[in-house]
Amino acid sequence: MKLINKTLILSAFAAVLLSSCGGSAILSTPIANIDNTPIKETELTLAEKQNWGHLDLVTDTIPGMSVDKAYSEIIKGKKGKTIIVAVIDSGIDINHEDLNGVLWTNKKEIPGNGIDDDKNGYVDDIHGWNFLGDGYDEQLEYIRLVGSGNTSAPRYQEALAKYEEDYKSALSGKERYDQIYQKVSEAHDALTKHFNSEEYTPEQVNAIETDNTELAEAVKSAKFFYANGMTSLVESKKQIKGGVEYFTDQVNFNLNKDFNGRVTGDNPNDFNDKPGYGNGNVIPVKKSESHGTHVAGIIAAERNNGLGANGVANNVELMSVRAVPNGDEYDKDIAKAIRYAVDNGAKVINGSFGKSFSPHAQWVRDAIRYASDNDVIFVHAAGNDGKDVDTEPNFPDDNVDFVEISNTYIRVGALAPEYGTNILAGFSNYGKQNVDVFAPGAKIYSTTPENEYDTKGGTSMAAPAVAGVAALVWSQYPKLTAAQVKQIIMDSGLAVPSKVIVGGDAKDIRPFSEVSKSKKMVNTYNALIMASQLSK
User: Fold this and answer.
1) DSSP assignment of 130-166
2) pLDDT tens digits, residue range 404-414?
3) Cβ count within 10 A of residue 283
4) How many angstroms separate the CA atoms of 226 and 486, rounded?
5) Which Gene3D superfamilies match (predicted)?
6) Distance between CA 85 and CA 464 in Å, rounded?
7) Is 151 helix (H, G, I), strand (E, B) or coil?
8) DSSP designation for 458
């Protein structure tokens, strides 16, 4: 096993607080020096893979957020105050076995009577609101700009050039994946017929000797897939089908300048048009619309109930706000979703979405400021383009030319489960000014619709991890302000003093201190200790 010959140092602010623990209920401070801690060199076990974001760098030699350590050594069964967390996303499967016990319910609304009982402007909003109605597929924002034909609009020429390049690439990708999918399907069908079973091993395939042309071609194809890291044609089909669906959606919907997926009857370019549009059905419209359910589980899947996943927070109510389609979200929907969450009691809002074009960015910034003014934290995913968001546009944001309009907005980059130069997820955006912290985001196991579980990766997974930490800290120390909770999360993290690969480019190696504002990865254990001191 390798050894870390490094020191993790808490910020000066954290050190002052932690050194004064004295007679508090917390008996020890975080371990800051791990020079002789062995780092895992072998592959993670299944249990570690499914829970790595909760593990501890010192105890488990995995760069998680020390969630389990915080529960066993600090929380020890204390529930704290219930915190409402709004998930602005693609909807949540509110019937999921690991989520149905942690839902926010609007007790002022009578289900199914068609009346806005609480006079909040939304009829029958029992567990949240759906700003998309029955909609699902949508264009990307820059495609809407191209489709508008408004050549005088800001960034129109940039959008047009990008469309021409991306649409051509999507067509090529679709054609390539269609061909590969046909190839693997034909091979699998032939081998299934030969073995009279869909289950067969690479060794069995390699042992086939045949004069049958069709079977020989199937063996040749299977060997090609095996040589490229696949161990099962069934799994190969599943992965390749995902590629087919991705490029098909791009060609038919996301990059189709003539497509219009809006079904709510309002004008998305008029903020005040048709108040209360949408409906109260916050469940995804199809099983594959799993993003929001996965995010919700990361925050608050019921802990230690014998089911598939554990959330970070142990005393929250999840408010589902459906506003993110299969494509780019509308600025109007996001701005109204944030305001809905704030007005209906959410203290933490998770936003695992983003885009590079935003025609009404100010509407969303105003909503983010509204959240801040009302003592609400907004946690936002940094994005998955492997880019520097200090120089590349990424929306929504909380600043204009680096002048922030909110002190409760947290932008989160993603970590991978490997300490060292590869700790930054290759897809994650970064930024010394515009990304606040990093948290586990690659290969995260969580809930998906219809009582299922799956592993997904993205800054979309890192943001809810931080939202969960914010809710947990606030639950335990409810006298803190939203701004204080944000600052605790940023100041109490673990600094990584080594250089890391940035944007997945092995030639781009920088100090970890240059990829985020805090220069740290989030640590739940440290955050709770700092919160205990600050709340006195």
Assistant:
1) ETTTT--B---HHHHHHHHT-TTSTTHHHHHHHHHHH
2) 999 999 999 99
3) 18
4) 47
5) Peptidase S8/S53 domain
6) 10
7) coil
8) S
**Which one, of 525, 460, 462, lies nearest residue 494 by Cα?**
525
Cβ neighbours of 72 (radius 10 Å): 11
**Torsion region of 66: left, alpha or beta (phi above 0 gives left; psi -120 to 50 gives alpha):** left
Rounded Cα distance between 176 and 376, Å, is: 46
What are 66's two structure tokens?
């020390």
Q: Label residue 131 exposed, middle or buried (CB < 10 Å: 0-12, 13-18, 19+).
A: buried
Other residues' Cβ atoms within 10 Å of the Cβ of residue 169? 13
The single residue of 11, 221, 236, 460 carrying the catalytic annotation is 460
* Helical segments of 63-140, H only: 67-70
CA 92-446-531 angle, 5° bins? 90
Q: Of the listed 291, 294, 360, 380, which one is catalytic?
A: 291
Largest CA distance in the chain: 81
Task: Identify the residue whose tokens are 């939203």.
Answer: 482
**What is residue 430's DSSP assignment?**
B
359 prior amide bond cis, ω within 30: no
CB 444 within 8 A of CB 461: yes
- Name every residue whose Cβ is closer than 8 Å to that of residue 269 and which is 6 or more positions away in sequence: 332, 359, 360
Model-level pTM?
0.91
- The residues, ordered by sequence, that sit 6+ positions from 155 with a Cβ below 8 Å of its Cβ are 142, 145, 357
Supply φ then ψ for residue 139, to 5 degrees: -75, 165
What 153-162 contacts at long range (C-beta under 8 Å, 24+ apart), as own/partner pairs, is: 153/359, 155/357, 159/357
Q: Which tokens sit at 37?
A: 């801690």
Is the pLDDT assigned to residue 2 strictly greater than 80? no
460 is catalytic: yes
d(CA 61, CA 1): 10
φ/ψ region of 394 (left if φ > 0, alpha if ψ in -120 to 50, else beta) reads: beta
- Report the distance separating Cα 391 and Cα 355, nearest Å: 14
Q: What is the pLDDT of residues 119-157, one digit of tens each?
A: 999 999 999 999 999 999 999 999 999 999 999 999 999
89, 98, 398, 491: which one is catalytic? 89
123: its two tokens: 């009829």
Q: Tell me how far apart the alpha carbons of residues 439 and 409 are, in angstroms, rounded to a whole number.
A: 15
The β-bridge partners of 7 are 33
The rounded mean pLDDT for the chain is 92
Q: Which two tokens stand for residue 100?
A: 């149905």
Residue 531: closest CA among 81, 51, 49: 81
Distance of CA 333 to the CA centre of its chain: 19
Task: Give the burial class of 361: count Cβ atoms within 10 A of its Cβ; 0-12 exposed, 13-18 middle, 19 or more buried.
Answer: middle
| In contact, 468 and 311? CB cutoff 8 Å | yes
| pLDDT given for residue 497 in this prediction | 86
Please check whether residue 142 is in contact with residue 163, taking contact to mean a CB–CB distance below 8 angstroms. yes
Are 345 and 353 spatial neighbours (Cβ–Cβ below 8 Å)? no
